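Support case: dTDP-4-keto-6-deoxyglucose complex. Customer-provided input:
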Amino acid sequence: MKKFTLDSCCVIELPKVTDIRGNLTFVEGGRHIPFDIKRTYYLYDVPGGAERGGHAHKELHQLIIAISGAFDIVLDDGRAKKRFHLNKSYFGLYVCPMIWREMDNFSSGAVCLVLASNYYDESDYYRKYDDFIAAATT
Ligand code: T46
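Agent response - structure generated as follows:
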C-alpha cells in the first residue's frame, strides 16, 4: 500500500476563466485533482474562534477550497506539520489519506468547500490523535 506523507499534499491552482461578467473556476476529477469526486460538502456559518477538523482519514482523498473568505488548515502526517492559509477560490489544498488536519482562523462569512473521493463513512475516520499516530508511524 502506498505510504502517504505531508509531501503528497499540495496547493493546486485551478482553471480560472475571466471575463467582464466575473470569474468562473471548475474542477474535473482525475484531471485537475488526483481522484474522482464522489461527494461534495461545505462548511459555512462557522462562528468566530471555532475550530473544526481534528481527525484523519484512512483512505479518503480531498480537495479543500476557501470558496469564500479565508481559514487556516494545519496538516500533520505524524512526523511533520505544516500550516496552510487558504483565501482564494481558485486554489485548492489536496489532502491525501492518513493526514491529521485541524482548521481554525475562519474569517467572517468563510465557506469551505470540500471535494471528496468517497461517500461519508464514519469508519474511515481516526478521531483520536493517539490512534492516528499509532497507525501513521508504524
Ligand atoms: C474534513 C473537514 C474539512 C455527515 O453526516 N456527512 C458528511 O459528509 C460529513 C463530512 C459529516 N457528516 C456528519 C458527521 C458528524 O456527525 O456531520 C457531523 C460533523 O462532522 P465533522 O465533525 O467531521 O466535521 P468537521 O468540519 O470537523 O470535518 C469535516 C469532515 O468530516 C472532514 O472530512 O476533512 O470537514
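The first helix runs from residue 129 to 136.

Case will auto-close in a few days if no follow-up is received.
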